[in-house]
Each structure stands twice: as C-alpha cells, then as structure tokens.
Amino acid sequence: MTEGWRHTAKPFAWRRSLWIAALLTPALLVMVLFVLWPLLSAFRFAFYEFNGLRPSGFIGLENFRQVLFEKPYSDWTWNAFKHNVIAFLALMLFENGTAFLIAFALLKALPGHRVHQVIVFLPVVLSAVIVGFLWKLFLHPLFGLVNQLLGLVGIGAIPWLGNEHTALGSILFANIWHWLGFPALVLLAGMQRISKDVLEAARLDGAGDLALMTKIVWPLIAPSVTIVTILTFIGSFNWFEIPYVMAGLTGSPGGSTDVLGLYFYRTAFGSTTTGIQDFGQGSALAVLMFVFVAGVTAIALRYLRRREIEQ
Amino acid sequence: MRDRGETIGNGAIQLLLAVNAVIMIYPLFVMVASSFKTNAEIFSSPLSLPTHFSTANLEKVWTETNFVRYLANSVGITAASVALILMFSTLAGYAIARYRFRLSSLVLMFFLSGMTVPLKLAIIPLFIQLDTLGLVDSYLGLVLVYVAMGIPSAVFIMTGFLRTLPRELEESARMDGASELRIMWSIMLPLARPALVIVAIQNAVPIWNDFFFPLVLITSDNLKTLPQGLTVFVGEFTTDWGVLFTGLTLAALPITVLYIVLSKQFISGITQGAVK
Asked: Which residue of B has its CA nearest to A189?
C-alpha cells in the first residue's frame, strides 16, 4: 500500500518509527492502563480475599463457591439471574417483536414515515435516569399518569411498582419505551437492503403483506436479527440503570426486581441493607457474568450465523 | 380487489404507527406540561394542560438546587472526553491506516478486542487503579475511563475511514517536501471530518447519559454529573412533583434539541456498528 514512498523514507527509518510510535502512544497508553490492566486484574482479584480496598490473600475458588452455592449469597445470585433471563425473553418478545412490526410498517414508506423514525428514536437519546424517574412518577398508584388514564375506563388504582407481581413487568415496560427505536431502526436498515426486485417479484406473484413479512422479509433480514438478538442479550445481563432508578438498589419490593447488575454493585460497593462491601465476591460475580455473557454470545453467534446462511 | 386490500392494509399500518407515535410522544408532552403546573394542579388534574404558565418551578430548580452545577459538569466532562477520544483515536488510526509497519495489524487487533470488553465489569480493579493514582472523585479519573471506553470503536472507525483517502494527495505533498506532521494535519485530517462527526456523536451520547461510572467514582456534590445529580435532586424534592417534572424536562432539553437538529447524524452514529 505504501510502496511509493518506502524507499524515499528509508534513510529516515528511525525518525519514521519514532513518528509512528508517537501517534500510537496516547491511545495505547490509555488502553493498557484503563482497559487491559483492570481486565486482567479483575480475573486475578476473583481468587483473592479482600481487606477493604486491598487484596489480602489467595483463597482459590472460595469466592466463586460462596456466590454460587453458599446461602444467602447463592439465593441472591440465582434470584437475580432468573430476573435477567426473564428480562431477556420479555425484551426479545415485546421490544424486538414490536420493533419488527414498526420496521415493517416503516418499510412501506407511507407519508410521515421519516417523522416517525425521528419520534421512535427520541427516547433512545435520553438518559436511563430521566426515563426511569419519569416512568416512576407516571406509575405512581394515586397520582401517576398511567392509573389516571386507566381510571377513565374504570380500572382501579394498581400499585405497579409496589407489587411483587407487577414491578418487574412495569420496569421492563419503561425499558421497552426507552429502547424501542434502536431495534426498530436497525431492523428497518436491514429491510431496506433487501433488493426492490425481490419485493416487487413477490408482489407480482400475489403475495400479501403477511406473506411478504413472513416468507420474504423475515428470512432476508437474518443478519440484522442476529445483531439485535446479541445486543439484547448483552444488554439484559448488564441491566442496571433503570432497575436502580425505579426499584432501588435492593430490587424492591422483596427482591422481585433484583438483577445481577444491582447485586454485583451491592456486593462490590456495599449498601445500607447488605452491609459491608466485598471486592473479592464482587470480582467473582463480575468474572462469572463476563464468562457467561461471552460464552453464550459466542455459541449463539455460531448458531445464528449458520441460520443466516441456510436462509 | 387488490387495490382495496392494499388501501385497508395501508390504513392499518398508518393506524399502528399513529398509536405508537402517541405512546412515544405523549409521556414527554405530559412531562413538559407538568413542569409549568403547581403541585396541587398536577395532583388534582394530571391530564389537563396547565391553566397558566407558571415559572415558579423553574426558579426553584435554578436557585434552590445544584442543577446548574450538574449541567456544567456534564458539559465539561462530555466535551473533554470526546475531544480526547477524537484526538487519540485519530492519531492512532492515522498511524495504522497510512503507514505500513511490522506490528500494524497486531496493534489494530489490540484496539478491536477492546470493543468486546464490558468495562463496567472491570469496575473493581478500575476503582482500585484510580484510587492508587489519586483520581477517584475527580473529573480526570472519570474522563480517562470514558476515553478508554471510547477509543476502541473510535480507532476502528477512523482507521477504516482514513484508509479510503486517496494516496496521491499525500504523495504529491511529500514530493514537495512537506513534513509528515504537516501532511497529516493540513492535508489528510481536514478530509476526515465526516468520520469525526460520527465518532463524536457515537461517544458524546452515552457519556452525556452515563450514570454508572459517576455513581461509583464521584462522591462530591460539586463534581456530580447531570444524571447523577438528578438522583440527588429527586431525593430532595420527593413530593414536589412540579419541581421533579421541571428537573426532568431541563435535563432532557439539551440533548433533545441537539437530536432534533441533527437527527440523521444521531441515528447513524448510535446505530453504527449494528447496521452494516
């Protein structure tokens, strides 16, 4: 690629190396100090006992044993994990399902479709803290917008965030409202890459909207579905901000909205209810979450890529 | 027959989109409208428009809270982080894209692998690292974390873009005896502006909105960012909904205005990576 100037630069080889090194140094330095080193330490720390902020002794797999098998830690871990799994399934079905319908509707490019893209993506640019607090106010049992609107059609006041059966679902709803535009526009971009000829040919063969959606569009956007699925999975298992804002650090009521992100934060940095912070156990949780997410992502990518090729 | 089916189909689609647009916009509309209401008005008639535009809430937020300080902190931290990300990733991307050297692909691989690292999960060692450097509870500590988080994908985008620039420009400048620095600064980088805009938006939005890292790293009230400050603010005014809605509206305002002006760039910047 640089054949032309290589020989002209040869006499200045050391100056050239120095120049290249100078260009790379700032970025590499930040990466080594604040990504590579912390990441390697994170794995190491999981095998240590901690005394405050400093590791005090190697204890092998003890931290892992505690968070996975020793009560009450194991109960907290599995309870939180269960909610992450529920969140992933619910987001796949409701968020991505709705996003798919909206993308398909936008693909028709009917009047107003550009404005709609801007509208559906608007909450995506807002902070999860704003979205969380907004919906917390709206879901207030007495004065919240949701119950006020439901009251108009005669439905009584429901304590959305105060009831163990509705809290997680309510938080998921706020999350879907926040993020819907992202999968919608990613799937739309996938649909827009389908060649016009294919869609036109299907139309001429008499395919209706439903057949077009299920037989042509769905199989042909497999690569976009793969990306959306993987990002939803990673997002579901790193979920933290909306549950923190709407249900608090302990996943109230009664741990019914606790997720791994909250549990990890409580373990690592302490809270008024769980007491002291434990960097060793926290590191073990972080390693488990990382290995789980990376492992499942790798396996899922292989499966989803194969599916893309078959279709 | 087909035409009629088509018309009904399109009507159903427009109805679906209209309902969705209302669900997306109406909550934000209520938020803004409520910020002009008194507390009593919000509780007694939450669905109605404000009877008169009261700016009492606004004055309260401005004078009785640290809101302006939080806003200024967020602006400063976002601007500094994005500036450093642009600078460092452009330099590194330029080296990888425009020069051939032995470790070039290894260096690129190193940056790319950084894209897969969820830095949140390394928060414990990161916290200890910053504590050792005396950077916990400081702007610099937070900015360095954001820069580290932004560099991998920024280097990826900049390298990809800088590779597409024609070699002839560079060659002829070199023939004229221009220094490498001059060639980079005055000839190549001005051409990289579109990629710089994408990188800037892609990083500015998550940094501006971030809550997790300030929560862990910042404890002084005077250093808190806007999302973090909102949690303080909500704790103080739990029952004063007029003030709460005003705070949320003000917090949402800057990025919403920017988004409406630059919606195309925002959408392509944020979905970049998921859309190929």
From this structure: B275
